[in-house]
Design goal:
Elements: E1 2-11, H1 19-34, E2 38-42, E3 47-51, H2 53-69, E4 74-83, H3 91-100
Antiparallel strand pairs: 1-3, 1-4, 2-3
């Protein structure tokens, strides 16, 4: 299982706010979660998604395309992947490991 930190940045919006675009992306992610394909968490600066790497690439493409469907002509998407193969780790496990050491 991999964990992805992703930020989709619509460029050329009418206002500085991008919350409408973020909300649309969260709706797409909710659909993948309902299908049991991913888990995700919205943060103030990005979204963290966990799942099988091949599925995550599919999800990333879907959310990258979302602002285009809302009329945006340019989108930049930042992706960071944590793909640990020696054991199965979820995002909550990573937090719990650090919290146990505090």
């Amino acid at each position: 299982m991999a964990i992805v930190d992703v930020t989709v940045i619509p460029i050329g919006t009418e206002t500085p706010s991008v919350s409408d675009y973020v909300a649309n992306i969260q709706g797409i992610l909710a659909g993948y979660k309902e299908e049991g394909k991913i888990n995700y968490k919205l943060t103030p600066m990005n979204t963290i998604i966990e799942g099988e790497l091949s599925t995550l690439f599919e999800v990333i493409q879907a959310i990258h395309e979302a602002p285009f469907s809302q009329g945006i002509q340019r989108v930049a998407t930042n992706i960071r992947i944590d793909d640990r193969r020696d054991k199965k780790v979820k995002m909550d496990d990573k937090l719990a490991s650090v919290e146990a050491k505090l």
